Structures are given as C-alpha cells and as structure tokens.
Predict the structure.
Amino acid sequence: MAKITLDNLAHSYLPEPTGEEDYALKQLDHVWADGEAYALLGASGCGKSTLLNIISGLLTPSRGRILFNDRDVTEAPTAERNIAQVFQFPVVYDTMSVRDNLAFPLRNRGANATYIRERVQKIGAMIGMEHELDRKARGLTADAKQKISLGRGMVREDVNALLFDEPLTVIDPHMKWELRTQLKALHHEFGHTMIYVTHDQTEALTFADKVVVMHDGRVVQIGTPQELFERPGHTFVGYFIGSPGMNLLDATVKGDTALIDNTEIPLGRDYGRPAGHVQIGVRPEFTRLAAGNDGLKVKVRRVEDVGRHKVVRTDFFGSEINVIAGESEGVDTAADRVTFDPAGINVYVDDWRIEGTAA
Amino acid sequence: MEKTVNQKAWLLVLPVLVLVAFSAIVPLMTVVNYSVQDSFGQNQFFWSGLVWFEDILTSERMHDALGRQALFTGIILAIQVPLGIFVALNMPKQGFWATFCLVTMSLPLLIPWNVVGTIWQIFGRVDIGLLGYTLDQLGIDYNYTQDALDAWVTLIVMDVWHWTSLVALLAYAGLKSIPDAYYQAAKIDQASRWKVFRYIELPKMRGVLTIAILLRFMDSFKIYTEPFVVTGGGPGNATTFLSIDLVKMALGQFDLGPAAAFSIVYFLVILAISWVFYTVMTNLDKEEAGK
Amino acid sequence: MTLTLESVSKVVKGEVHIHPTDLTLEKGTMNVLLGPTLAGKTSLMRLMAGLDAPTQGRVLWEGEDVTGKRVQDRQVAMVYQQFINYPSMSVYENIASPLRLMRRPADEIDRRVHETAELMQLAPMLDRKPLELSGGQQQRCALARALVKDAGLVLLDEPLANLDYKLREELRAEIPRIFEEAGSIFVYATTEPEEALLLGGATATLWEGAVTQFGPTPRVYREPADATTARVFSDPPMNFLHVTKQDGRLMFGDGQAAPALGPLSALADGPYLAGFRPNHLELDRPAGDCLEFTATLSVTEITGSETFVHLDHHGERWVGLVHGVRQLALGSRLQVYLDPAHVYVFAESGALVAPAAYAQAA
C-alpha cells in the first residue's frame, strides 16, 4: 500500500502544447493518503481517465512526477508499479477456471502453492463464488465475470493501489448494490489505497472517503461526500453532485444579505461586498416551497414523484429553481414562493465559493 | 430469432435455387451417372453398379495419391498456421506500416494460380531461374524436375509463399479485436509474453483460426493448377496429388467411370474431414462455454 | 390508436421468453417496462414491433390483427441503447432519412426536420456528422429520427443507459415533455426504478418473462400487487422479513415480537412476509407507535446528505436510507425503528395481503 503523490503533474496529448487549453490534464499537486478510498468523479472528457492512465503507467505525463511512497515511478512501466486494476468491462481469462483466474497474478509472481490455495479460497468466498471456483470463466454472466475481475484485483495483498475504471457499468442496478457494498467491506478489511473512476455520483459518494471532482482537466474540489454536498467549492460541484443539482441564482451580496430581484435573502454569514460575477447556490434539499410574502416569487411548473421524495420544478424569471419535498409532504400547487434555509446557502464569485465570517 | 412468417420469401430464394441446381447439382448428378456405368465408346453405356467404386477404393494408385495429398496438406498446415500467427503477432498494429504490411501481404493472394505456378516454374529453373541458378552456383545440387525431394520442397515453399498471408491476415483480424484492457490487465498481472499468447491471444483467435485451417485444408487438398504447372505431377508420380491424378484419369486416359467414382470419393473425403473438424471445434466451444 | 397484446407469448427452443401477456396501451401514453436484465423487456418490445412473431396470441393495432404483419408495414420507430445513426450522413440527413423513405415532399421534409431538431435541441448541429457529436447529442439525433416519423408506436430500449449520469438526468427530464407533444404510444424499457418514476405514465413491471403488474407508475410503486413487483420496483432493494402473527402479536422468528399495530392488527393469524422500503427505516425512535428491531451494522455509505446503512437482521440483509451523515461503528448492534404504516404485508406466496397504510393515504 502506498501514499500517492502527484507532483506538478500535467498532460497534453499534443506533442507541443502551447496554451492551457491544449492540456487534457491541467496542473495537479496532490498527496493522496495511504489506505484511503478515492473516487475520481466527472463527466466524460474531464480528464479522469487520463489521470488514471498516468497512475497505472499507461501514459507518461508531459510534465511533473508521480510518486508512490516517495519513490518516483513517472517512467516506470505498469508491471513495476505493483498495482491492480479493474476495468469497465470484465477482463477474464476465458479458457481458465475461476480458480486459475484468481490465482493468475500470484502464480506469475511465484507465490507458493499453499498460500495461493488459501488466498484464492478466501477471495472466492469474498466475491461469493466459492462454489464456482472450478467452472470455466467462459459462459458466465457479465456480473459473474466482473466479480472475477474484482477478485483478481483483490488477490494480492501487497499492491500499492487498487484502481477501478467505472467497474459497475455493465452491472444491473440490483447487483450494483451488492458489488458496491462488497467493495466497501473489502476496503475496510484490507485498507488498500483505492482509486475509483466514475461519472456516477451515487457510486462515487457511497464508495469513497474522499471524492475528487474533475471538470475540464482540472480538479475542482477534493472533499468528503458531506463537504461536497454542503459546501461545494465550485459551481460545477454544486451542479454535478445532487439530483437535481444545486440552484444557482445571480445576486448582489451586501454583508449578510443577498439581493435577488429586490428580494432580500438572509445569508446567515457576512460575505462583505464581493465583486465579479456573484451567485448564491442553494441545494434543493435546503429550498422550501412557501405561500405568503417571504422568499422569491416563482411559478410551479411540475411536480415529479421520485418515490422517496418529490421534486418540485419551479420557474423564476426563466431560470429553474428546484425544491425537494418529502414523500408524505403535500405539495401546495398554489404556493408561489420559495425560501432558503440560510445554513444551506453558499456564495460564489466567478464560480468559486467564498468563505463568509460569522455575522 | 424467428421472423414474421412470410411466404413471399420463397420467391426471392428461387433464382438462387435454380442457379445452384444448374451449377452444382446437375453436374454432380452427371458425375454420379458416369460413376455407375461403363462405356465402350460410341456413346453406349452399360450399368455397372459399384464396380468403379470398388476398383478405386482398392487401387494402389488412389492410395498413393491420397497419401501424397495428406502429407502435402499436413506439411503446409503445419508450416502456414504457426507462421501465419507469428507474422500476425509481429505486424504493426496501426499507422503507415500496418497498412503497408497488409497491402504487401495481400499481393500473393491476388495472383492467379497458374501465374503463381509459372512464376515458380521459372524461378526454380537451373538455367534461367533466379532461385535455381543461384542454388546451382552455390554448389547445391538442386533440380526440381528430376529430384523428388527438390520438387516437394519447391511446391511447399511456393504454397507457403502463396497462402501464409491468408492465415496471417485472418489471425491479424482476430488479434485486432482484442480490447486493450486485456493487455493492460496482463501487464498488471505480470503475465509473461508466452502466457499473454496462451491465455489471451490464442483463445481470442480461435474462431478465425478455425476458419483459416478449414479454408487452407480444403484449398490445399484440392490443389491442382500450381503443381501441375511447376512439375506436371513429376518427377515420376512424386507430386501427383489427387486432383492431378484425377485429371490424368479422366482426360488423359478417358476412363470416365473410374474417374467419376474417384471424384465422388474425393469429394466425400473432403466433406467428411471438414465436417469432423468443424464439429469437433464447435463442440469443444460449447462444452467449454457450458461448463 | 391502441396497441393490444392478447395473451401473447414467446417460446424459443422450449424456453419461455415471454409468458402469456395481456396488455393494452393507449394513444399518447408513456409506458415503462421495468425489470432487470433478461426479464424480457426487449423480447416484449420485439413482439410489439413485429420484429418477432409471437408463439401464441395476437397483436392488435386499433383493433386490427397485425400479428403476421412485417415491421416495415407497421407504424413503428425504435431507439436502442447504442447510439445508432448513419455515420456518413449529416444530422440533417439522418433525421430526414425516414421521411425520404416515405417519399414526402421536400418542403415538408425540411419543415419537419427543423421542427424536430428544435425540439431535440439539435438545431445548431444539423450540418455535422453524428460521430462529431457528444454521446448525448448522438442519442438525441437517434431520438429525433424516431420522432420525426410520426410513428404510432415508438419503442425505446434503455435509450439512456450508455450516457453519463448527469446527461441521463437532463434527458430524462426532457423526454416526458417532448413525448407529451408527440401523441404516439411510447414504450420505454429501463432497469432503473428511479427512471420509471421520473418518466411517470404507466409502468409494467417484468420478472422472468412475465408482466407482474401494469398500472399508473406511482400506483405500481406504492401499491405493488406482490412481493416480486415490490422487489423489482425498489432501488435500493426492498427489505423483507418473515413474521408470524399470533394472538395480536407479530413474532419475528428470532424471539423478538412486537404488537401488531395499525392495519396489521386486522390480519388473520399465520405466517407472512413483511416488506418495507429502505427510506422508511429509521435510526431515531419516531413519535408514536413503532416496530423496533435490533440488527448488526455491516457497511455504511454516505451520499453527502444521507447515509445508507447495510444491516444484518438474523441473516436477512436489510438496507436503510437515513437522513443526515451518520458516523457509526461497523459491527455494532443498532436499534432500528419502523412505522407500521410503512409496512407491506405479503402472503408467503408473495401476493399482497395488505398495502402499507401510508401508500393508500398518498
């Protein structure tokens, strides 16, 4: 297991990048702690796969270094990095039995037979395939094959890091639950450093200790799921995490109040008088539908019943404000105001969050 | 998948049926007809039952030709399949050189059989052929028109030159279809080059290799034009393969009855071997998938 | 326009793909086929489209038997999980292609292509080739091609499955709006319960080749006819526990017992299967009467605003979804609570005996 250091890392697929826009991965400087589970979250093309390929050794970065436990591995080939990886689509050795598939990485490294047998048995039980160890891997379902891939990733105890590249893409929703919780349990048991690449916020948030949100080749925030939810550092984080994402409204901020369309909104904290493009962001979870004279005047457009809660979509001068209401909560369609819980309001200047002081 | 029932489809198949009937079934029936009759000229035919078949099946001439044929096919398969795979494995995967290799390798496949024969016939001649002359000058005693071994070596080298590309191209297509993730996983698992080949590349090439072997088997078992142009079946009968023998019998000696019986046996042998090979391969496939 | 399946079934090589199914779909409706992979969603769609002939039963289109009619002769459009467009044609030509096949006049084609492109937000990219577009735009192009035909029946087979999560969310919100305007019969296959709920309309839940229930989506969700439907229409999966009712009490097999409260008190004595959704499990004792269990915590997952707790209750695996971020020690014993109004009661055979009281109120 290892601590992973990204030192001034950047990558461009062009041979001679000129401007910043030529970089698929813009400058990164991070230290990822040993034994933590990280998720790289972002839309396709955000650079998360580029970063993963640099860590796994498939790509050599144009600039900067990557270190595993202070050892520079920037130029080291994949085989030397002692990592394990699970891919988007199951990669199994078709002609081998499940047992041989799991034993393969150990045998190639010359582990002794008794150890291999015990270890494979243990991993087999963990992925719930202990009764199918002697089956040929071919002809198994995609679920089962992906479990073998996961198992093969777990089988070595001494790996520096375990990388997952959207491993649950081919899995049914019901099965996703099972595999994800298994992964989580395995992480608890073994404490590997794990890096999990995905575009699915639920997977990222539920899996990781720390989520690395990427946008346009840049890391916009690294934080715990709670931090990303409550204090999104960038408007993109607010939009990308949460369903629906954060409500964003242009505002004029003066001290501890925001002014939107002549309506004063208490912010709970003092933000001074920020210049630039000022917005306030409030998650639908902190937004309430109200009747009366408080809050912003809106028009309810639609109510979506998502089962465990309702999403009320309202219109505020052409921009959408979403409200989440409880399952058993009645939605008063005559209501024409929304109010915000001050605890859930964040202030953004040119897309980045600014910190307020206690009012 | 079952489609919606529509009887009109038969109408569309009809032209093909007529064509197949005229091109394959009708000539085949003529052959069957000849194989059970005897003629003493003047277009008079007599029913002779299975006599020709008995004759052919017990004739030493047929046995020898079959033996030579099997040996030839065996040797060229044993060379072309591994060589083809080897070439495919070492071909560049993309870029200019990949295209270049593909084009160059396709060239022999585009040359007509008789031209290939003629090329090698001249190429190997001691007096004017580049190969024969060079060998002769090097002091190697080489003469494919007189020495049986030389004739065999020439034919095998020629066939390898002509057809290995086909195996290589098919194997290459199989290799190209393997996703990168497999190679990456193998690197991570620290698999040796041999294991990558044994557990990733070979299984993934299996389908195309089955086809390649089948095609090469059928083609080489029927080989006629090239050896006929180069050696004419000689020296002696050393390179008289089944088809050459058949033509000699049918056109040279005009023994229509035995030749017809010969053709049918020949046809059935190819059919039987291809069928057995194909069935075994697909059954292995199913068995493995099912276990 | 109506599409009616009359005890349609499909058997391939002795294997039942679709059990006899009766279904009537009305004009202008969104019909979701919800079920896991291999439940028969695609098979059922192929029968509806006429791509496959049913082994038994009839398919009626506006009352007319179209069972043997070829798909080309029916008014059907289909969109697949893969983004299928003509790669060498521009987006404009792609959208225009079904109309050209129908030999429409040029000005009509032009008008309708522009209308549909506007609707699908493709107007700025009409001149581009599909492969130059993002995945979401490629699928919009495929959707536009299906819509422009004005087909009576539009089949969508997991059209958003290959898209990024966030793009999926956007298109999901758009699709019901677009389809409201189109007025065809829409059939939409998905594996995700949440998608079914967002699309609204009616839902047919599928399990192992059989439609287990068909009705308005929220009703199927809140009043599942049996345990299978409840399981299919719940993500995270519904939790179950075996109970025996005896002398006004519910016995949980492990020695725990609770008074049979609310609607449960009206049940006859005997064994039952109780089910409840993860979001109804609570870690803090709610006000009023409640059921109480002790379970072992195996894993927690934090989503930012909520926490999934995975519990082991005497061998039954439960999932709870609770508000807020909870830091709990794994392996610890937890008291969990459940409002009896949130409990569905099924017979051991799986048939619904009593729906949850809250669902009837909602």
Remarks:
- Chain B has one domain: 65-290.
